[in-house]
Amino acid sequence: MKLIHLTDTHLVAPDKRLYGLDPRARLAAAVADINLHHGDAQGVIISGDLTDRGEPAAFQALREVLEELSMPYFLGMGNHDARETLQAAFPELPRDDGGFVQYAHAFGPDADDCVLVMLDSAVAGEHGGLLCESRLAWLDACLVAHHDRRILLALHHPPMALGIRYMDDIRLQNPQALHEVIQRHGNVEHLLFGHVHRPASGVWRGLSFSTLPGVNHQVGLDLVSAADCLAGSHEPPAYGVLMIGEEQVVNHLHLYMDDSRRYFFHDTLEAAQSLEALDELIALQRDERIPTREREPLSNTLQAAEAAK
Ligand SMILES: [Fe+2]
Ligand SMILES: [Fe+2]
């Protein structure tokens, strides 16, 4: 099965910009790209910081853009969001008995299917995250209820330090408590989070994890500066394509706004000793294989070439 991971959309009120960029336009580009290339995905997981300042107009803009998705979406709370305002804009969004945006969604009965468990790690007025006793108890019961399923666990805050000190200070503040619940059940297969606005993956206490660039602005890879300094960056946005098979979970990072050259690794490529020559080759490949199409991203081009065989 296939799922899409998006994070940190940081939408703002209409006509506003954020760090000089338009988060709504960038999210709309992601939605269009996902619909075009991953219409077979069973859902889009958005792991918090849905808005930058939690205004109703920003949540409304989010809803308008996400309504264009051809598949369901699953929202999580971030430190930049406002729980009540989120709920007002998305009244269908499930909450646990404590009012936290926590829910489970089972994707089907097959061996390569899984259950998404969304956690709410946000604390009003704080940038760091926390899972209080009530939220941890809900997770514990949820993992019992789905004891025989593969769990994909999503939350906004990373439970581990990633080496960017400013972000490390505002990570999940009680990782040990989360670990104890996860370890008690042993069915969590992969951890997804946002908040850090960078691609990163690894293993935390035996559990694999991955995170992504944000949809709007990024955090630079600065592993040196002190905790009072955070490097912003305009590196390109991305989404993750999670391919969940019986034996593995693969997370492809896709830079959906990248417009660099795309070409087939064709024999004649050896002749392309300059970018100008490569452009000529690309034009030839386009003419030979997909004469009626304008240049499109690689996956479309490859599908057209396959269909023409
Ligand atoms: Fe964020
Ligand atoms: Fe955040």
UniProtKB/TrEMBL annotation:
Keywords, in A-Z order: Hydrolase, Iron, Metal-binding
Calcineurin-like phosphoesterase domain: residues covered: 1-199
Regions crossing the membrane: none
Keyword Hydrolase: yes
Signal peptide: none
Domain of life: Bacteria
InterPro entries for this protein: Calcineurin-like_PHP, CNP_phosphodiesterase-III, GpdQ/CpdA-like, Metallo-depent_PP-like
Keyword Hydrolase carried by entry: yes
Family annotation (Gene3D superfamilies): 3.60.21.10
Family note: Belongs to the cyclic nucleotide phosphodiesterase class-III family.
UniProt-recorded name of the protein: Phosphodiesterase
Native species: Cobetia amphilecti
